[in-house]
Write a structure and sequence with these properties.
124 residues; mainly beta; seven-stranded antiparallel beta sheet
Length: 124
């Protein structure tokens, strides 16, 4: 017994969906990390979500990064600012929740970034 009408998408079906092709730019430098905590909920990244992370991308101001700081993995937005006086660059890691203060990075050389998040996967 039919339960509705035929999908218009059937007219455009070409091949199987390849999520690697749609979600991953460079498979050799990409991995998935599961999020623990709520520090990035304001950016749409929730506890239990999985992030697709690309190690080959250059982290820039505003990138969501996976970083190691004091031996702990954190997921935060990278903030890089230069002072107008030329006295240097300030680096900090910013949560997307006001409950978490920014993490100032005293020496940018001590910050290890494991990659830039490119996609967030979560259950609906």
């Amino acid at each position: 017994m039919p339960s509705g009408f035929a999908s218009p998408a059937q007219d455009w079906f070409e091949d199987r969906i390849d999520l690697n092709r749609h979600l991953i730019r460079d498979i050799t430098s990409t991995y998935i990390v599961r999020v623990s905590g709520d520090a990035m909920e304001g950016a749409g990244i929730s506890d239990g979500d999985e992030l697709i992370v690309d190690r080959a991308l250059q982290p820039r101001h505003g990138s969501v990064v996976i970083a190691v700081l004091d031996g702990e993995l954190v997921i935060r937005r990278l903030s890089v600012t230069t002072s107008g006086t030329g006295s240097g660059t300030a680096v900090s890691l910013i949560a997307a929740s006001p409950a978490y203060p920014p993490i100032a990075v005293p020496d940018p050389d001590d910050l290890v970034i494991w990659g830039v998040a490119t996609r967030c996967l979560h259950h609906v």
